[in-house]
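Structure ticket #2291
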Amino acid sequence: MLEELERLREVVGEEHGQVLAGLETAVRAHLAAAEERNERLRVLEEQAEESTRMAGSLEETRRRLESAEVGLHERDSLVGAQAGEIAGLKESLAATLEAYRKTTRAQVPSAAELIVGSSVEEIDASLERAQGVLAKVETELRERLATEKIPVGAPGRTGPDLSQMSPAEKIRYGLGARG
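Resolution: structure written out below.
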């Protein structure tokens, strides 16, 4: 368009040159405005494309989030089920330990109160300690019995304590001894 204005200027000459200069300025302003609009349109198109990409990305993100939520709910359900199983196993373990503790106490009834513990290892350790205590007591008793002299046979009979008897009881005792 500017080239056409240049040709027109050559044809028209100087007298209409000012009019052509005004037209040229108007055309240049119009072209600049058109270029500005084109640039704004290009920017808007880029923004629209970016928005479309972001919308697609947002939709993909929503799908992934929903999938993650489903997975999270499944894991929560699994964790709940496993927590129930763990509670059941703990109860079973406690019952088994109590039965083992009772069985172990039955092995050493004279020291049953020494058998304690909240695990098999602790119960076994307390059984060993109880057996050690019993062995020590047995050894001490055997040593004490070996050093003490106990006479063989029954002790000799002694008569009743006469100081505690009434006079009538003493007479009866005396008559009973004679006859």
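Closing remark: Residues 1-92 form one domain.
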